[in-house]
């Protein structure tokens, strides 16, 4: 039997036929002339697409969870579940591992998985739940499951995270401390130069360190008036440079080899003429 046919929500319907009908529906959506929609119609279309994407994500994770639990991927040319996902779904190894991990965790939260699949909560809510359940003892999972479904229907993922943190602190104080310790252990920052000479940053910070950086960036990345056409990520990049420049100009940085850190700019001679 095709692994896709194991999706339990479609037990009474042939999965291949259901998928074919869904593809036909997506084709119809793709054919909509969105430029011809009025403001209200375009807004409703976008909201509907977003909710549909969340529902499809829920159904996909449910199928991936069944596939992982039953090892239905075996015998199909892959050495692991995440390798099967990477090969068949065109995912990077990291994306495939994350998809399999989230699906496995959502199997511990059946009400959350169902709410995602039927559109009562979004993918962000499910992500908060999947991360939290990994840090909680099994006895606390059902309470988390109920909390996510009830709160997720009313608040965004950020506010849900706060509610989940409060619940984790009450239900298992040690779990929150463990998550913070793990975040601290995994902190990193990679800095490299691109072929064009630009600087690329990649990293993650612990909870307190991250909030410190976010607070500083927020103070310096507000739009500079109505004519400021920078994207939010561009404003944050400029804010980071401003922080570094202020640190250099402030004179408080330790010396390196007896020399105060300073910036040297090299420009072509013709630029000065």
Could you explain how this protein is built, in words?
This protein has helices spanning 15-30, 39-70, 81-89, 93-106, 110-117, 123-133, 141-152, 157-171, 173-185, 207-220, 232-250; strands at residues 188-193, 199-204. It folds into three domains: 1-107, no CATH class; 111-185, no CATH class; 189-222 and 229-272, no CATH class. β1 and β2 form a beta hairpin. 60% of the residues lie in helices and 4% in strands. The chain contains eleven helices and two strands. α2 crosses α4 (93-106), α6 (123-133) packs parallel to α8 (157-171) and α8 (157-171) packs across α9 (173-185). By secondary structure, the protein is mainly alpha-helical. The protein is globular, with a radius of gyration of 24 Å. It has a two-stranded antiparallel ribbon with strand order 1-2. The N and C termini lie far apart (75 Å). Residues 1-7 have low confidence and may be disordered.
